[in-house]
Amino acid sequence: MKKVSVIVPCYNEEATIRLLLEAIYQQSYPLEDLEVVIADGMSTDHTRQKIADFLNEHPRLHLRLVDNTKRAIPSGLNRAIEAAQGEYLVRLDAHSVPAANYIEECVAALDNGYGDNVGGIWKIQSVGKGWIARSIAAAAAHPLGVGDALYRVGANAQYVDTVPFGAFRREMAVQIGLFDESLLTNEDYEFNMRIRNAGGRIWLDPAIQSIYFTRSNLRSLAQQYWRYGYWKAQMLRRYPKSIRWRQALPPLFSASLLGLFISGFFFSLAWKLLALELASYIGIMLIAGLSTALVQKSLGYLAGLPLAIGTMHIAWGTALLWGIIHPVSASSLTK
Questions:
Q1: What is the spatial distance between Cα 202 and Cα 117, in angstroms, rounded to a whole number?
Q2: Which residues lie closer than 8 Å to 132 by C-beta, 6 or more apart?
């Protein structure tokens, strides 16, 4: 069997880290051929203690904890790769729970030559129990929230631009230069972009499945999507042709709202156009919320889904625009 290293960047993940470790321990892949390398961003909660407790309870699991002093995800991934000893690397997230055959399916896809980076689909769940938390989870898998992101909405096996997490050969990762530590988010898409530019292929296989836990409130959701949007803008400076239609719509929507609002002080027609655009948008969101509420038999989605999707659109769209006009400085990357 191939030696596999599971690499996990984390920071303050006490709520979910044990769920991940339990799922890894229960994998169908032989434990003797498996190691786990967690790169912790110097967590200030009980993450490290929970990892230590799990290791004491499961001494058969080969687990190493390395420091990620920069705290960012790409630096954590690189520290984990540098410490890993496996021929194959399986990236996972502390917010995820892989299916029992996850690693086995990843290794099979790589061995069969389907792709240079292989991944699967998310079964999205809420880490919270309130109506907002459930609505955020629904929004993260709704076409209006994520467009054609196939790993979120489900798809047949096929070649794609990117996959969540991913599994790949260590040799390939080293050859293309590991993860770009100057991108604090969108590092996975950029990594896959370099793979494809080098002639490699990205394979999405629905047999590879994991549960992904979403944010539990609108504030943390807005912060997450602001970060996504801002760093997407930085990546677009290098790869301007990489933007997809679904990614262009939120910044265009945000720009149109701002443009019509400012124009309204000079042209009265702009106020009417702004009202029409907002009414149309809200109407579409309410229809989506009603549809989800009927399917899930819960009225909370009627308001919750529009609020969650709207937060995602506005945060991501405005952040991307801000990132275009306000590029990241080199000094900010060293803080």
A1: 5
A2: 216, 217, 218, 300, 304, 307, 308
Q: Where are the beta strands (DSSP E) in the chain?
A: 4-10, 34-40, 62-67, 88-91, 96-98, 117-126, 158-159, 167-169, 202-214
CATH fold, domain 4-216, is Spore Coat Polysaccharide Biosynthesis Protein SpsA; Chain A (3.90.550)
Helical pair 245-263 and 268-296, crossing angle rounded to 10 deg: 140
Identify the burial level of 44 via C-beta atoms within 10 angstroms of its C-beta, where 0-12 means exposed, 13-18 middle and 19 or more buried. Answer: exposed
Rounded to an integer, what distance in angstroms lies between the CA atom of residue 130 and that of residue 198? 45
For residues 319 and 228, the answer to whether their CB atoms sit within 8 Å is yes
Q: pTM of the prediction?
A: 0.85
The C-alpha angle with vertex 100 and arms to 51 and 73, in degrees rounded to 5, equals: 45
Give the distance, in angstroms, between the CA of residue 20 and the centroid of all CA atoms in the same chain.
Answer: 16
Q: What is the dihedral of CA 118, 36, 41, 78, to 10 degrees?
A: -50
- Strands annotated E in 215-308: none
Q: Where are the domains of the chain?
A: 4-216, 236-334
Start-to-end Cα distance in the chain: 42
68 near 39, Cβ under 8 Å? yes
What Rg value do the Cα atoms of the chain yield, rounded?
A: 21
CB 142 within 8 A of CB 282: no
- Which amino acid makes up residue 205? D
Instruction: Give 122-172 pLDDT, tens digit per residue.
Output: 888 887 789 999 999 999 888 888 765 565 555 688 899 889 889 999 999
- Mind listing the pLDDT tens digit for each residue in 72-82? 999 999 999 99
For residue 31, give the 3-state DSSP assignment.
helix
Q: Are strands 88-91 and 167-169 parallel, antiparallel or unpaired?
A: antiparallel
Residues 6+ positions from 29 with CB-CB distance below 8 Å: 1, 4, 103, 104, 107
